[in-house]
Here is the input.
Amino acid sequence: MDSAAASEALRNGTSPELRHRRAVAALSLVSATSMGVISLYQTGLVKHLPEPPLGLFDADRVDAAADAYPLGVPDATLGLVSYGVTLALAAAGGASQPRWLRIALAGKTALDGAAAVKLTLDQRTKHRAYCSWCLLASAATLATVPFVAVELARGFRGT
Here is the structure.
């Protein structure tokens, strides 16, 4: 597909597949935005992350923990890259993605969802607190699953 056709299809197409992929793109952007906010804290650009005034939220504790810096890298910055890849996979392929691309998007989304569940559970078990910014990203990530499941089924059917 040439670039002009991809541009036209992505911006103006109305197929159910494109609506699903746009939903995945929008939810990936929500998650990436949340990771951007957390990155501000993890890199020292801001000294505190605001949270709802409930005792179970403490983003500073969760996002400053040693396990939030795998190999010395803030995990939110890695999350930004990861959600960028998901966004690119959702946007790739023009009006109708080839089967392999649908399968790649589904696999990436499955990995994102598994990571979101694990990190959410870790907040409760390891830190005894939640980061609302992290929960927002996890919820948006998990919300992509139904949209991608339809495309995964199409990918295995070869349609």
